[in-house]
Amino acid sequence: MNNLHRAGKQRSSRGNTxxxxxxxxxxxxxxxxxRIRAAGHEVVGYDHHxxxxxVANLAEMVSKLAAPxxxxxxxxxxxxxxxxxxxxxxxxxxxxxxxxxxxxxFTDDGPRAERLKPKGIKYLDVGVSGGxxxxxxxxxxxxxxxxxxxxxAQPIFDALxxxxxxxxxxxxxxxxxxxxKMIHNGIEYGMMQAYGEGYEILIASELVHNVPAVIxxxxxxxxxxxxxxxxxxRALDEDPTLSGLKGYVDDxxxxxxxxxxxxxxxxxxxxxxxxxxxxxxxxxxxxxxMKAVAALRQQFGGHAVKR
Length: 307
Prior knowledge:
Number of strands: 7
Helix content: 40-55%
Distance between the termini: 77 Å
Shape: elongated
Strand order of the largest sheet: 2-1-3-4-5-6-7
Strand content: 5-15%
Largest sheet: 7 strands, mixed
Low-confidence stretches: 1-14
Order of helices and strands: HEHEHEHEHEHEHEHHHHHH
């Protein structure tokens, strides 16, 4: 063991502190680095933006970590994640652990674990929820993988989760962490759609004159209180009529995957399916489907149309 690794070994063995390599220091990753460091752990972070990075490349990051190493990728799902894991596979040693905390599809995780197994490198998938507020509030973590590998990274999970008994689950085997996060995000789609539709009915009403006040009244004592409702109230504080926004809503995949799973498992998921279709609808300036409906009404009933 060289001096650098020996020094790292000494640092990582003090109390319950440890080292972590963290790849991806954007809005989520950068805040996670800060929270983990605040808990007393050492983080060596790498980002493709040099001004955010602690090291110049992944090889330098690995060289600064003492074996057995834990390296967490927090980069966009797809090719970027695969490239990072493949590069790490050539740099790490048997007994090291790779964690993917991005929004990868759960079907990627089992094959990754199998691909890394001959090298003796362990793999965990972690669904991470908390957004830009996680640095202060903590992150909800859903982990997939073997229990002994989860235990190796537990001090990091404990640093990231909120204080108390909630916010962490070893969900199951490889893929379970990303699967749980996928379902979490599908539920999130449905909840946001319900709040949005309720808001639209309120602003359409001739009776309600102070919609932001109504939303605010629900934040305590109401069965619909939630963090999402708090965020809607915050948005209305900043822009009471939301006039500065366009009703265009993107999606990053998890809602679609959730509906795919509902179909595969023959589970009726009306709300989740409707919420993702509403997002698609939000991106249409002039719906071809509704044009066809208008044309049909005109043809069979002579109903008026707008040109």
